[in-house]
DNA sequence: ACAGTGGTTACGGAAATCCGTAATGTCTTT
DNA sequence: AAAGACATTACGGATTTCCGTAACCACTGT
């Protein structure tokens, strides 16, 4: 089990709940912060002191208040931590269940676990911690279909960009021209058509209108 | 002419351009901010000091940065200002040309003018100011059809049904066939096309995809 | 080196859309 | 009954999307 863990969570009650859980798991040194910026500073400091944190459990959304923050969200924090402290284990503990966000966190920012706050949130969090201790990753069942669900739902940023531009009213040809101008790689009309066709199949959409309606409902864009 | 005016605009160059224009119009006391929150604070302060601003010229979209904001957009700011300082004149100066947004600003938040940033943006802004000085309202020609066009903002159940079927992936021909079967009156493909065209114009949509995206955002479907 | 794989691009035809014009129908007004 | 206003429908052509096929290129591996 880990010895030194940090909790970043703005809601005091939840913060306290997680703290209790960690104590029950036998973690000796637990610190808590209510701002992402404070989390970063504490981790930085601990690194300089040669007594680094082994793991952080962080929320995604922190309500904004008077204090302006360099890292306003857990996502921003995760990105920074992955770049600067790649060995630090990161567990995200959030109500968010947007699959694309989860995918980005795993693929881009290499977090180790994603746990949804829900009825059985703490139970899943326990599972997540034991998995991460053993060097594995963990994904809450609520969002498990973000990856190994039925289909290989590989929706990357390019796809999102495509869908966003479509929903903004650009024709496929206009998107092609735009991508050529700003040097986004598959830029040909043909490639865009092909990619959209793939997305239509993945989302069971009859046509582009249907596709955009679906992904808007899913919150992907 | 007004004596004391505030400019809220995050792009420094534009901010400066508007400032110059106001000086040319003979406005003596001009202040500038790059965040909506600062605008609110300045207006609040001036009110408490019994030297209130007479007018604010504000953008709609402010790019987000590290500073967390209570009023992230000009829309949020306008709403607050209308509630707290109803006598303050508000001119919105934005690239946005979404008619529904303009309508909301006028009807809900009672702004005094809406000017589109465009080739002739500053010219229209001048007009807007003189109109507002005289107690009138002003609307950029680009969005003038938000109101005193036919102003047939009559979106009826038929329109909604059309948009819903579109978003469910039916082609216009399929919708036509469906309406013929269940005896919904304008059922011909031609009528459906015409109606959708009217909706596209009303919502400033480039195509059907764009239209569905817009009305989904508006919560119409 | 050579086949195999996967990603990008090109092309062409069918289908659907976009958009203007015009014909038909329906209802009201006089 | 005639005329006018307005909604519905019909039609034609330009554009766009949809979809299959295929060429081209980079990269991989026994």
Automatic annotation (TrEMBL), chains A, B:
One of its GO terms (biological process) is phosphorelay signal transduction system. The keyword Phosphoprotein applies. The keyword Ubl conjugation does not apply. One of its GO terms (molecular function) is DNA binding. Residues 4-132 form the Response regulatory domain. The modification 4-aspartylphosphate is found at residue 59. This is DNA-binding response regulator, NarL/FixJ family, contains REC and HTH domains. The lineage of its organism: Bacteria, Pseudomonadati, Bacteroidota, Flavobacteriia, Flavobacteriales.
